[in-house]
Amino acid sequence: MPTRLDRIPIAPWRCLVGAAILGLSPNAVEAQESEAAPVALTLSEAAAHFDGHSAALSGADHATAAARETAAAVKTLRRPVITASAQYLEYQKTLSVDLTGPKQAAIGNTQQLLNGLPGTFPSGFQDIAAEITAKLSQALPQLFAGIPDRLTYRYRDDVFRPTVQAVLPIYTGGAIPAVQGAARAGVSLAEAKADGVRDAARINLIRVYFGQQAAQALETSARQSRDALASLYDDARKLEAAGVTAHVRTLEAEVARDAAARALDRAVLAHQTARHELADTLDLDAVRPTTPLFVQSRPIAPLAAFLGREDRLPQSREADAAGAVAQAGVALAKSRYRPQLFAFGEYNLNRDDALPTEPDWIVGIGARITLLSNVDRGHTLAAAREQQAAAADAARAARKTATGTTRRAWDLTEGARRSFLLLDSAIAAAEENLRVQRVSFDEGEATVTAVLGAEAALATARAQRIAAAYEFDLALAGLLASTGDLAQFSDYLSRADIRIAPEASQ
Q: How big, in percent rounded to 5, are the helix, strand and coil portions of the chain?
């Protein structure tokens, strides 16, 4: 029966079943092992430790917190902006007044007054008054000659101007709601990304946690095969010495034993790699997993029970949030066509030293509209609408992809479960076949080839069983993640009725 190892989506099983990396012996590998005592952890304990030490999760949490702070920052965009400023000024003012016209008018008016003045006196005094006014009229131009035709005044001073200004947005054309909506969508986007990072990290933890146990079990199986073939080689030598079998059969058994030894070397290396990967993931020196690989004998829920949950997935929520950001972009682009209305005010805190033209305080309402912009607003709006359409298409594609992922994950999970159950009878048959072949070989009735074939069949069945259990656990995690229910993985683990304890693989 095929092992379906090529269908495992996460771990490269060639490392676990014997892909050659280095030609080291088991003793050389064991000499390189860390002397630190491994930390025994259940899967839940490993997950809790990982959550507290993962830089990826911490980074995602910081990004989410930053998005929340940004959204909180723009909630107050409708508040007034109040600023205080202070200026120290040194200035000079020159005033110039033209007195030609007023001086001529003053001379004319004075002359008219003098001409009428003698008639206001009694007749006996009119001649005297007329003589006096005549002399005054003659002296009048000289009297006004002292007044300049132009008066110039120059003033120089220094001023300290502390002021408080306030601007209150009344209507922004929809810009403020657009910015606030984009910030809220940014929070949803960051939360969805954080959940995606968390799910990916948790699946990877499940992969390396159970991967170490799978590698350990495969090493145990490889060691059993090596020991069995070594025993077969010893028996072949004895039979050859007794003249029962030919020397070529002994050589055949020797070749098989050496091949099994090399396979054990590769299995030891794969186990060592798996141990290091789990330890590095948890930032520990060494880890001993205590939660065994598991499989449930009863079928999992039908595929229909896992479909229809696409809206809960991080990738779908992320796409929806991106659509909300694009929608806010459309609203912001539209606001550039609309007028803006605002209130403003300013108060001078040093009115005694103010400039002559400066008010003590001022309040008002202003309006502003862009008539011509150096950025084409029509193309900007069109681009925003295209972004919105792209986000909508991405959301639909994300849901479609999620449905396909769920289908494939369900097939993998149920297929691994069935393969595991069928392998129980295969292992029992392979063990019985090997026993019969060994008995026949010891009695000189079976060939070495038959025994080697039986041993290889048993080793393959054992490896397939381990692989099927590992595949079931990984596929189940992928299935639950594809429906947004990865937190239920521990529930499936607790209800599982078949377990492959790490101690059993020693």
A: 65, 15, 20
